[in-house]
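Dear U.,

For the methods section draft, I wanted the exact inputs and outputs in one place so we can describe them consistently. I've listed the two proteins in the order they'll appear in the manuscript figures. Please don't edit the token lines directly; just add comments below if something needs changing.

First protein:
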Amino acid sequence: MYKTKISSIALLLLIIFLTQTVRSQTDSTQFKKWSVSMMIGLFMARDNDEFKISPNSGIDVEYHYTPSLAVYTNVGFNFLKNINTHYEFYFNTTSILEATMGARIYLDPELDRTFMELGFGYYQKFNQYRVQSYNTGNNNDEFGINWGFGSDIKVNSSIRIPIKVRFHFVNFLDEGDYTIYWGIYSGIKYSF
């Protein structure tokens, strides 16, 4: 009788173990590996003496190695509003193009998918000036790093609403001439 109980318990534990292993393998192979997001948001400069809060937009492509680990690439455009843009003979507009890539770690891939991300990228700052009827401008090519956090809110199995905050440190290797800004982003994400 004692051997029968031990055999029954051992058989039950073996069945539970095998069932858990099979379930976790099926879950890990059925996650959607690719996703594309259309994002809009707000640009905010660290020093508020040059730019107003301005709109931005972009596209984000993500590939999942596992449900918890993904790599991403992102292209965004910041439409900056200068604080002092209009004088009698002078008009100035600025914009920043960002092309970044990095890694995302999802902390709870089963729920609303809270994540942290770290990346690097290429940033191009466009300055356009107009003095009376003369147009001129310049471009600055810079590299930088970025990090952020956010969450993907599930709508259905393929659609999510990402909400995130990302901090950018551009041209950080050049002492005294670096740019720091941050953005709040949201949009719609389609996974396949």
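Second protein (the one for the lower panel):
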Amino acid sequence: MKRRGSAGVPRRRLTDAKFWLEVLKGFQGYPVLIIATVVIAGAAFWFAWWLRANIARGAIDALTKTIDTMNQRLEFAQDQLTAIKSKLAETEKTVAAQANEIAQLRDQGFAGVEGLAQSNNAIQSSLTDLATSTTILGRTFSDIREWANAFNKPRPSAG
């Protein structure tokens, strides 16, 4: 039994020159078939070109949105860094003020121990806030780094 192609024509016949000459003779008697074939081929080409353009446009739009998202994250991280720097400056001022207060409390003796404890608590609170802000900033930069690494991974080549 002969193997048949997708159109029900034996495969061996598709490579036969005589078969194609017979098919082309059919076009001689009906010139409208040539025009219809060209129009259909042109429409198929146009549709493929249009589809490729839409797929490419979708990919470009998705990448643009991803870049915009990363820029927003980077701006957010920069804002957090600015906030951390201001908290650090506040903490440095608090530590300097506490150093003066501790010096005054040492002069007062045991009566100033409660004030020293409060000062110590204030310093610890400031440092805890600073550590929390730094952790959040680190997570944001890690997210950006992970995205950049995932985006820059070489894609396996088809072949």
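Candidate sentences for the figure legend, describing the second protein: Residues 11-151 form one domain. The radius of gyration is 38 Å.

Thanks,
Y.
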